[in-house]
Amino acid sequence: MMTHVIEPIAQIHSPYPEKFAVPRQPGLVTAATADIELLPPFNADTVRGLAGFSHIWVVFLFHQNLAQGWQPMVRPPRLGGNEKVGVFASRSTFRPNGLGMSVVELLEIVVHGGRTLLRVQGGDWVNGTPVVDIKPYLPYVDAVPEARGGYAASAPPANMPVLFTESARQQLQQLKGQYRDLPTLIEQVLQQDPRPAYHKNKVSDKVYGMQLYDLNIQWQVLNQQNHVINISKDF
């Protein structure tokens, strides 16, 4: 059997320091921007011509899961976490070779001080994710409008209301200008309801927490609404 060593070509700088709250698919949280920084020896020459494409494929490693291995059967969140399907019939992050693939919008290519950054929108990566390949998205072959989506034929609902308490609004005002489009980012992440599937039908006043950038975002789910109660750098 042939073996092949894959070396990272880039590293991702994203607003998600931890797996919790990372969108389950790309493009669901459009307010999330990330920088894909090329690693030596890859430089601006390797992305020459890429700016002519609006979207790119990013092939990456689920690096935080590699040591945990994989299972032939998994429980997709779209099936409520109760039904099992084969790993190759899922988007599970626990895969035999630990590879993921996302389509994202390419906003710009920044070359400065010897660094080459691809600024993208709508990514679904933990900060520090290693990238192993980048390819242009070609609509005439990559888009398949008549494709069937199996048990995930349509996008999951993202309409869970998000309300900010007065104190949270004041905290956002104090942070204004320090983070790109922070209120919208928080709203879009919480509209996806990042809680575990088994929590979603429970009535509780539990305080949840997630990290965005270096911030601790705390919220409660009351009457099927997200109430953001605290935004700070205190953990």
From TrEMBL:
Keywords: Methyltransferase, S-adenosyl-L-methionine, Transferase. GO terms for biological process: methylation. GO terms for molecular function: tRNA (L-threonylcarbamoyladenosine(37)-C2) methyltransferase activity. Belongs to the tRNA methyltransferase O family. Pfam families: TrmO_C (PF18389), TrmO_N (PF01980). InterPro entries: TrmO-like_N, TrmO_C, UPF0066_cons_site, YaeB-like, YaeB-like_sf, YaeB_N_sf. The lineage of its organism: Bacteria, Pseudomonadati, Pseudomonadota, Gammaproteobacteria, Alteromonadales. The gene is tsaA. The keyword Phosphoprotein does not apply. This is tRNA (N6-threonylcarbamoyladenosine(37)-N6)-methyltransferase TrmO. The keyword Methyltransferase applies. Residues 6-146 form the TsaA-like domain. It comes from the Bacteria. It comes from Pseudidiomarina insulisalsae.
